[in-house]
Each structure stands twice: as structure tokens, then as C-alpha cells.
Amino acid sequence: MRKARWSGAAGPLVSKLRRQRSSTLSATETSSERRERDTVRRAHRFGSWAATATRHSPWEDALGIVAGVTLTAVGVAILGSLGFLTGGMAGLAFVVHYLFGVNFGLAFFVLNLPFYALAIGRMGRAFTVKTAFAVALLSLMTAFSGEALRFAYVDPLVGACLGGLMLGFGLLALFRHRSSAGGVGILAVYLQDRFGWRAGLTQLGVDLLVLVTAFAAVSPVAVAYSVLGAMVLNLFLAINHRTDRYLAV
């Protein structure tokens, strides 16, 4: 009888000690361990989702970059046909093109050159090589896109949204293959990897600054449509480009 009474009295005490130990272990758990635990839970929940990152093969990277550049070039062609622009280095290239008549592809290629120093110093050689390839290919495609793509009529509202969306899909493909379209994209990917800042929001802030300078090159109406396209682009990236939702590298 005494043993039974002691066990009954000790039961709550044992439970309390176990809870304290569990809370202590939870407090000492690192953020990376918590992320890994959450990833495993999601993997079990969704079944087919791999719990660990898998690497893209060189062929997968090449095809992904070509696809991303192609989508980006189509977005640039849509915006250019309407006299609109976008943010980042592409926006500056549009401004140079509209003000001085310089070919967009050439301006885009030259403006991106200084950012390779940041890329190779902070993001590594592989990222820099893939980004240089993407920038060169995009410059080449946009230089000759006027001969391959001609739009008879595009509604300005639809064109701004569709152009921004195409740019978003293209940049997302590049980001997920550890590449970028250069310029602000390099900075955005670096800040996301280093500080966890979302690439889309970083790009949005820079893009708005670039679009302010657009008043010197295009009409206020064109700037307004360009801002809309930039918002579509960057909100798309902010929603979809997250390291906790895509595990391939």
C-alpha cells in the first residue's frame, strides 16, 4: 500500500521533470536543426517530396538556364514593344536604349560587367560562370529578338502584367539553377543566402529606384505601366523563390 501511494505521488513529479527536460532540449536546439526537422515532417506529409537537397547535373543546369533566359527574353520583348521598361540592370539598359539609341543587348551586357567581381568573390566560381553565360545569352537573344518577335498589338495593361510575369518565370528558373541575370540579381541572391532576405523584395526595392530614373526616358504613363510590371515580377519572385520550398541546388 505504501509503495502504491509513493508511486501515485511521484507520478506528477516525474512528468514535470520530463517536461522540463524536453523544454531544455528544445531551447538548445539550433535553428538549422529545427529547419531540418520541419523539412522531414513536410516530406512525410507530402510523401513524394525529398527531405534532402539534390544537385542538378550540368545538363540540367544548362537546359534550365537556357529556358530561363528564353522566358526572360520574351518578357523583355513584350515590354520593349510597348515602350515600357523594368527594374534592375535591364531597366537601366532600357533607359540607355531609349535615351541614346544603344542596342539593348549591348547595354545590358556592358552594365553587368562590374557585378562579376561581387559574384566571384561572394557567390563562387560556378555561380559566376553560369551567370556570365546567362547574361551573354540574354544579351544575344534580345539583340536579335526584334527580327524574331513582332507584336502587332498588345494591350498596355496586359503587356505590362504578362511581361513582368514572363520575367518572373525566367528569373525563377535562373535562381533555382544557382544563376541569375546579373546585376541586381547577383546582389539579391547573395543577400538571400547571406542574411535570409527574400530575393524578390530586395529586387523590388532596387527596381523602384531604377524606375524613378525612367521619367527622363519615357512618359509618365509608360512609367506607371512599367511599375505595374515590376510589381508583378517581384511579387512573383517573393512568393515562389524561397529556400525552404525548393531543395535542389
TrEMBL record:
<feature type="transmembrane region" description="Helical">
    <location>
        <begin position="127"/>
        <end position="145"/>
    </location>
</feature>
<feature type="transmembrane region" description="Helical">
    <location>
        <begin position="62"/>
        <end position="85"/>
    </location>
</feature>
<keyword id="KW-1003">Cell membrane</keyword>
<keyword id="KW-0812">Transmembrane</keyword>
<dbReference type="GO" id="GO:0005886">
    <property type="term" value="C:plasma membrane"/>
</dbReference>
<feature type="transmembrane region" description="Helical">
    <location>
        <begin position="195"/>
        <end position="216"/>
    </location>
</feature>
<feature type="transmembrane region" description="Helical">
    <location>
        <begin position="157"/>
        <end position="175"/>
    </location>
</feature>
<dbReference type="InterPro" id="IPR003740">
    <property type="entry name" value="YitT"/>
</dbReference>
<keyword id="KW-1133">Transmembrane helix</keyword>
<keyword id="KW-0472">Membrane</keyword>
<dbReference type="Pfam" id="PF02588">
    <property type="entry name" value="YitT_membrane"/>
</dbReference>
<feature type="transmembrane region" description="Helical">
    <location>
        <begin position="91"/>
        <end position="115"/>
    </location>
</feature>
<dbReference type="InterPro" id="IPR051461">
    <property type="entry name" value="UPF0750_membrane"/>
</dbReference>
<protein>
    <submittedName>
        <fullName>YitT family protein</fullName>
    </submittedName>
</protein>
<feature type="transmembrane region" description="Helical">
    <location>
        <begin position="222"/>
        <end position="239"/>
    </location>
</feature>
<feature type="region of interest" description="Disordered">
    <location>
        <begin position="1"/>
        <end position="39"/>
    </location>
</feature>
